[in-house]
Fold these 4 entries.
Entry 1:
Amino acid sequence: MTELVIELSETLDQQLAEAAERSRTSKAALAQRALREFLMRQSNDREVTKTVADVAGHLFSSIDVAGPSDLSTKKDYLGDFGK
């Protein structure tokens, strides 16, 4: 395990101490958990910004649509429509 030294304001240090006491854990353990949760949220936020095309783009070219792209251009596809 490596060591990280950070400077905290007196207010933040007091808040951390109170939160550690409430959760019955050390300030170091609480800070590690907070940092871990922050990094996981950062990672998840990047995944959320992906579009459907980013995630499933490889599937789009595999869809084979039979028939013309615009049925209104092919009168025989309309048959007796509207009669």
Entry 2:
Amino acid sequence: MHGEASSVQEWNRFWTMADDVVQSHHIVIDRPAGSSHPRYPAVIYPLDYGYLDGTAALDGDGVDCWIGSVTERKLTGVIVTVDTYKSDTELKWLIGCTPAEMSAALSTHRTAHQAAVLILRDGLMAGSG
């Protein structure tokens, strides 16, 4: 039981710290909703997509993020990807996304060469199938 409480505390700490990063960095939208991927024109972005300026991800660029319609700038989930074409993994932060928007973003990362899973903020989609 003690381990479960500790785990919940760490999850809460993770989301709080991630929210702090989102709040303290400007979001740069370099791929607006409806635009196509620069190298893969068949991939259309269902939401605004960009990065957090002044941050660093595994690829050396800013932390990638999808921007949803919820006005509160709060992390709602994280997409974890594995790409066999590029032989890499990445994290995509979901900021202010509804469940439908998170699903649309997730679908974008599920291709022949890429697999993706969604980590939801605790309780966000409780009761949805």
Entry 3:
Amino acid sequence: MSPIKNIGLIACGNREKSLSIAQLDATSGYQLKKVFSANDSFAGTLKSRFPEVEIVQDRASILHDNSIDLVIVSGPAAGDMDIVGQVLQAGKNVRIL
């Protein structure tokens, strides 16, 4: 296992929290690798701010990526909580912000 932990971000709602976790880098032992956001303009904002991050079109791209160790679910509403179950079923660690 790599000493750098790759992160997938699923941004459900809270943009401010999503941007703050996106500041993680390899020096902290974490690297933001992929982001899914249903909001195209927010995905564009992330891409311009963090050009090395891959913006994906669906959550499955994060859930089925074996190189991702941790999935951060940012800003989930009550209806979004099934995402947490999907992350756990995929065998990944999950953090809810």
Entry 4:
Amino acid sequence: MSAQTRRRWTVIAITVAIGAGTAVVSYRHAWDVVTAVGNRGLIGYLIPLFPDGLIFLSSTSIYACSQDKLPSSPWAWIGAIVGVCVTVTMNVLGGLAGGWGGALVGALTPVVFLLSLFVLEHTLRTAPKQQPGGRPRRCPHGVPTGVADGSVADFLHRRDCLGQDPTFKDIADAWGVDRRKLPARVAAVSAPVAAPEPEPSGAALNGGSA
């Protein structure tokens, strides 16, 4: 395991631990508030899950859209804002039993949970793609000799090496080429890159078997 992989797994482990701990604390504060106003049984256990679950769902949707260069749904932003407001309110009310200090700690809990969630999502989505054998993918794209070659190389490099999801329109606009011709050029170049010819055997190099 490389040093970069170890660091990535360390970040993931720490953020998961922080997120799990703050989620438990946030749930307990919300449960105290929900049960204090008369909600018992199954309802009392389910309601505290709603705000943090809404934050997780909305933030994941927003981050996925940003990675795919797509506009985020306004409902995702509304859900994230509502989830943050609800969980902060519940945690502040749940911490008021310990005075203003307890209320401050309660307010910080969902903030830490939200930050750890963003860090974890970013770490997972920026992991470099690897080949089946576990070795990091090597960039097979050479230096372009013209604008047309440059647009194709840019598209393939973003897709295959950086793990992005570029669109033909964005690449064509950036390089000033015809968007209608770009898909065919990419298909013509990416086929041999995706499936390289097998290396010749030792017998073939020596002119045949002995």
